[in-house]
User: What shape does this take?
Amino acid sequence: MTAKLTKWFKQETVFCIALALALASMILVPPSAAYWGYIDFSTLGLLFCLMAVVSGFRRLGLFDWLARRLLTRVGNFRLLGGVLVLLCFFSSMFITNDVALLTFVPFACTILQKCHQERLIVTTFVLQTLAANLGSMLTPVGNPQNLYLYSISGAGLGEFIGWMAPYTLVSGVLLLLVVFVLSAGKRRISLETGALLQTSGAAGRKKNGIYLALFVLSLLSVARVLPWELMLAVVLIVLIFTDRAVFLQVD
Assistant: This one.
């Protein structure tokens, strides 16, 4: 039992520390009905919808398929490094920074191993981490912090993106310059793309269509076109009848 608790604490260290601090704060602010007002239910509801949809895409292998298609014409490490970094940079704008890393960091490891470029794995991981965090700042759905700031700011979607666009653009250019410098010449690589490609079948394509529709509806909710309560109800109902296993994938 102790070993299980220790393992769980190591896996959920941030959660445990946050919970301990929250309980300690009750000494200063005793529990009351006002506690309900501290919770931003709209942000949590939207975040759940987005994470559920993205988890569904990941389960179906959509992100892997898209990434592999992009890499089929890569012939040197400069291009490969750029693609692996930019995948995290651009995808994080729509599927959140942590999901982008969980999706494409293991994929980058596999790709570099197949190219016999293991010594570049750490460098690539660092650049992907930077890319995911910098790219995600462009949109409200890029990370939970942005979604919260967007929610309380009252700004429109276009206005928010306009605020963040200059910083994101500069970040993207600097990332490409770093990749260019660190690639040390256009070293040729041999990528075994044939072994990487996969198909999801008709059932997978149908589910991808369902998740794509839910993703579009989620974005409409973020843009305040649809109420978040309606979006949450739609996502819950659809997942209950089509893919209940996704609930276990939402962190």
User: Anything to note?
Assistant: Confidence is low (pLDDT under 50) at residues 193-199. The longest helix spans residues 157-182. The radius of gyration is 20 Å. The CA atoms of residues 115 and 191 lie 5 Å apart.
